[in-house]
Design brief:
Elements: E1 3-7, E2 13-16, E3 24-29, H1 65-80, H2 86-92, E4 98-103, H3 105-108, H4 110-121, E5 126-131, H5 145-156, E6 160-164, E7 173-174, E8 180-181, H6 187-203, E9 210-213, H7 221-239, E10 244-247, E11 263-265, E12 274-276, H8 287-305
Parallel strand pairs: 1-3, 4-5, 4-6, 6-9, 9-10
Antiparallel strand pairs: 2-3, 7-8, 11-12
Helix pairs in contact: 4-8, 5-6, 6-7
């Protein structure tokens, strides 16, 4: 029987198919689909294509010539706008500031570890930390910090530096001629201040930001009095140095009367739960104490480096402390 194959043509045609049965196939013309005309309500920008290989589609009769021309101009202008490359986007991102942290056991331990992690993970700084217990600026014969600091600067090229010394420096000062300036000879403050400035010149050359962390209140009375003295030197030397800051943590770990305490309110509210902030020796810090110091120091550093105003409410000088610093609890 005859079969019909849909197709296009001016008229129907009959062909004889191959095969033993001689089946006759008929090509039947199908009506052509009616092309939809774009309406004038569509976006005029769709009337053209941005491909350079295709010509723009003409508008429908319903669109005015002016509307079509406006759409043509807008689409052509958008196609010509420059697109930033990935390299340009990367170049536009500001470089992360590099911070070098150096110091004694406070930096080798909890304070330094928490500060390194916080500055990097919370604020995105690139941080290097070098801490060594039982060291300072008093005994270069035991550990030469100026030499080590220069090595760190040469390798890391920091944009800012954080320093914490003092606990091991309240002793005699070893001199280059192997002599000593014992505590508390009149020459001691002058020589120690010279060493502080020489060290600052290494880690913060050219007026780069420098943050010198002071010593906290201490329980041993002899030690307590001595760290007050080195804090005074740090404060005075940072005050006259461009872009240098003394970060006072004395009151941060003291009670409401400025005296030594092993425990502080956990939430900052009197009468609530307390947490131990000092180690058993009354000199070093517990984990909670190190975290409290780190949070304050990190906020101070980030405020300065980001162009803000640091919190100095715990600073003894800013808070209007008496001439004589608080004494340890008896």
């Amino acid at each position: 029987m005859p079969g019909v194959i849909p197709g296009a043509g001016a008229r129907a045609q009959s062909i004889a198919g191959a095969g033993s049965r001689g089946v006759r196939y008929t090509l039947a013309r199908t009506p052509a689909r009616r092309r939809e005309r774009p309406s004038c309500g569509r976006s005029a920008a769709r009337v053209i294509t941005t491909s350079a290989r295709m010509a723009p589609t003409l508008p429908s009769p319903q669109c005015s010539r002016r509307t079509w021309l406006h759409g043509l101009a807008a689409a052509a202008g958008a196609a010509l706008l420059p697109r930033p490359t990935r390299a340009a986007e990367v170049a536009a991102e500001p470089a992360k500031k590099r911070i070098l942290i150096v110091g004694d056991s406070m930096i080798a331990g909890g304070v330094g570890l928490f500060l390194e992690n916080g500055l990097h993970k919370v604020h995105g700084y690139v941080v290097r930390r070098k801490g060594k217990s039982s060291t300072g600026l008093a005994r270069p014969d035991f550990f030469a910090w100026p030499k080590e600091a220069q090595k760190q600067v040469d390798e890391f090229a920091p944009d800012a530096a954080v320093v914490m010394f003092g606990g091991n420096d309240v002793q005699g000062l070893r001199m280059p001629d192997k002599g000593w300036i014992t505590w508390p000879e009149p020459e001691w403050p002058e020589e120690y201040a010279r060493r502080v400035n020489a060290f600052a010149d290494i880690v913060a050359a050219g007026g780069k930001p420098l943050f010198w962390i002071g010593m906290p209140v201490m329980r041993p009375e002899k030690f307590h009095v001595r760290v007050q003295r080195v804090n005074t030197i740090y404060r005075a030397e940072m005050a006259i140095r461009p872009n240098a800051h003394f970060i006072d943590i004395w009151r941060l770990l003291a009670d409401d009367k400025g005296r030594y305490t092993d425990r502080l309110d956990a939430d900052g509210e009197p009468g609530g739960k307390t947490v131990r902030v000092r180690a058993g020796d009354g000199i070093h810090l517990s984990v909670a104490g190190a975290q409290r110091v780190e949070a304050h120091v990190r906020a101070f550093i980030h405020a300065v480096l980001s162009g803000g105003q640091p919190d100095t409410s715990t600073d003894l000088a800013v808070a209007g402390a008496p001439a004589d610093a608080p004494t340890p609890a008896g």
